[in-house]
Write a structure and sequence with these properties.
The chain is mostly helical. The chain folds into 2 domains: 5-53, Rubrerythrin, domain 2 (Single Sheet); 77-408, Citrate Synthase, domain 1. It has 19 helices and 6 strands. The strands form 2 sheets. A 3-stranded antiparallel sheet has the order 1-2-3. A 3-stranded antiparallel sheet has the order 4-5-6. The termini are far apart.
Length: 438
């Protein structure tokens, strides 16, 4: 038997086939079973694709057992300590850290594309003021393809890079308009003198009628900007998660990048993916006081009770979420500035300590994940709760763009086409409507 292969035997027929066991630069090896149907006449069943590698990628590496997260080989801890979000976006997209000149050029390119077309601003007027911000995001991002169609050739490298940079550039203004439209405030345009996160906060919260507020506004507080940069870095990519896989599947058809990103945003919207930090805040509000913690911990442990401790546990990280370790300290720092949030934060910390010392959570390796803290930070930055997933969208656009660019650069990109285990009726005779009875 050849080394680095895997044999699959059909026990009912005795047929056997051998497949290469591919080894990446790190992580679990992958059996290349693409020919299994041709060889053995069956498909594989993998609900939720939990054991399926859908692509080769060089962007992000996760070791869930060891709590390792690398972007392009760099530990998330180092990037969080030393980079801005824009530097991280460059790294994800281009594969290497930028020099000072490259970073300045990238910043300029992003800034140059940060204002949206006036026609797109008018598009917001057609949404009801109480539309969910994510509903507006999906629609407006998809509409970018109607406004910037002259640079949409996915086989042209320059067009692809412009599309990716444009998405990163325009997302903050689109996100801020989702909020401003809902509260009826006038449009605020991006400013070239502000960096990415400052610009976003300025477009969200500045009031043109209060000029001094623009420069002295609390939303440009360095602690807040540092926290936002950090959250954007931590959420920028996470390998082949549901929304990234959605972007890749849409892209496999040759759809334009704006349509692909809109598909990714729709996938991110679901509470099982991008909505967890919102759920953490609702849970803390429901628990209310430290005295109720024991009661709610018991509810979380009760299999007959649907209540789960939000912000605890992770599908991939089984010892700790490295992003949670990084964000925990910043969460302390930000909340120290916000006296009015003191009780909420104390409750969160008390809950965290209780669960970390409880056998149920210890045995099941349930630790706080990044979203346990991110919701608290967003709340401290005055971001409305229904904007939390929009914040995630801004950050994850860097990852989606990197994956889309990687995919488009590949000479082989077959259309994604999973198979199924059919459980419906076998072929049956058609019955005309007059003979179907009442
Ligand atoms: N509270 C109480 N019990 C839990 C929890 C929880 N949050 N999470 C898992 N368990 C229990 C679960 O009931 C099961 O117990 P048992 O073995 O007795 O049946 C055991 O722990 C293993 O759970 P699982 O459902 O098999 O674990 P999973 O890996 O399939 O689920 C999860 C992961 C994230 C869906 C789940 O932990 C959960 O629902 N957490 C709360 C929601 C949350 O915080 N989601 C955000 C994830 S981070 C987002 C990101 O990375 O972008």
């Amino acid at each position: 038997m050849a080394k680095d292969t895997i044999s699959i035997i059909n026990n009912s027929t005795g047929e056997r086939a051998e497949y290469p066991l591919l080894k990446g630069s790190a992580g679990t090896p992958v059996a290349d079973i693409r020919k299994i149907h041709q060889d053995l006449g069956f498909f594989t069943y993998d609900l939720g694709y939990v054991s399926t590698a859908s692509c080769k990628s060089s962007i992000t590496f996760i070791d869930g057992n060891k709590g390792i997260l690398l972007y392009r080989g760099y530990p998330i801890e180092d990037l969080a300590a030393n980079c801005t979000f824009i530097e991280t976006a460059y790294l994800l997209m281009k594969g290497h850290l930028p020099t000072e000149i490259q970073l300045a050029e990238f910043n300029d390119a992003v800034n140059y594309r940060s204002a949206i077309h006036e026609g797109l601003i008018r598009l917001f007027q057609s949404f009801n003021h109480d539309s969910h911000p994510m509903a507006m995001m999906v629609g407006v991002v998809a509409s970018l393809s109607a406004f910037y169609h002259s640079e949409l050739d996915i086989n042209n490298l320059q067009h692809r890079e412009i599309c990716a940079t444009r998405l990163i550039g325009k997302l903050p203004m689109i996100a801020s308009l989702c909020y401003r439209h809902s509260v009826g405030r006038p449009v605020v345009y991006p400013r070239a003198d502000l960096e990415y996160c400052e610009n976003f906060m300025n477009m969200m919260f500045s009031r043109p009628e209060e000029q001094s507020f623009i420069t002295k506004g609390h939303y440009l507080d360095p602690v807040a900007i540092k926290a936002l940069n950090l959250l954007f870095i931590l959420h920028a990519d996470h390998e082949q998660n549901a929304s990234t896989s959605t972007v890749r599947l849409a892209a496999s058809t040759g759809a334009n990048p704006y349509a692909c990103m809109a598909a990714g945003i729709a996938a991110l919207w679901g509470p099982a993916h991008g909505g967890a930090n919102e759920a953490v805040l609702s849970m803390l509000e429901e628990i209310g006081t430290v005295d109720n913690i024991e009661k709610y911990i018991n509810k979380a442990k009760d299999k007959n009770d649907p209540f789960r401790l939000m912000g605890f546990g992770h599908r991939v990280y089984k010892n700790f979420d490295p992003r949670a370790i990084i964000i925990r300290d910043v969460c302390h720092e930000v909340l120290a500035h916000k006296e009015e949030l003191g009780p909420l934060f104390e409750l969160a910390l008390a809950l965290e300590q209780y669960a970390l010392n409880d056998d149920y959570f210890i045995e099941r390796k349930l630790y706080p994940n990044v979203d346990f803290y991110s919701g608290l930070i967003y709340k401290a930055l005055n971001i409305p709760v229904d904007m939390f997933t929009v914040m995630f969208t801004i950050a994850r656009t860097a990852g989606w763009a990197a994956h889309w660019l990687e995919m488009m650069a590949s000479p082989v990109r077959p259309i994604g086409r999973p198979r199924q285990l059919y459980e419906g009726s076998e072929k049956r005779d058609f019955v005309p409507i007059a003979r179907r009875g009442k």
